[in-house]
C-alpha cells in the first residue's frame, strides 16, 4: 500500500475541503516519453475528455520519496 502526502497548498486545500483522499496518477499519454505537468497543456490536449483542470503551476517531475515502514 502506498500513500502520498504532497507538500502542495492546492492539493492540501482540496483534501481539507473534500474531507476525503484524492486518487491521482502520473499523466503519461500513450506514445509519449514525458508526463504532462503543465495545467495549460493538459487542458489544451484533454479539455474534451476531462471535467476540469486545476492549473496551480508546474507539477514538476521530481520522483516521490518512498519510506519503508515494515
TrEMBL record:
Residues 1-70 form the YrdC-like domain. It holds the Pfam family Sua5_yciO_yrdC. InterPro entries: DHBP_synth_RibB-like_a/b_dom (IPR017945), Sua5-like_dom (IPR006070), SUA5_domain (IPR052532). GO terms for molecular function: double-stranded RNA binding. PANTHER family: DHBP SYNTHASE RIBB-LIKE ALPHA/BETA DOMAIN-CONTAINING PROTEIN (PTHR42828), THREONYLCARBAMOYL-AMP SYNTHASE (PTHR42828:SF3). This is Threonylcarbamoyl-AMP synthase. It comes from Streptomyces sp. SID7499.
Amino acid at each position: 500500500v502506498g500513500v502520498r502526502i504532497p507538500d502542495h497548498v492546492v492539493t492540501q486545500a482540496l483534501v481539507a475541503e473534500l474531507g476525503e483522499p484524492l486518487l491521482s496518477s502520473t499523466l503519461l499519454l500513450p506514445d509519449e516519453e514525458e508526463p504532462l505537468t503543465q495545467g495549460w497543456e493538459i487542458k489544451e490536449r484533454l479539455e474534451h475528455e476531462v471535467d476540469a483542470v486545476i492549473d496551480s503551476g508546474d507539477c514538476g517531475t521530481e520522483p516521490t520519496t518512498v519510506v519503508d515502514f515494515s
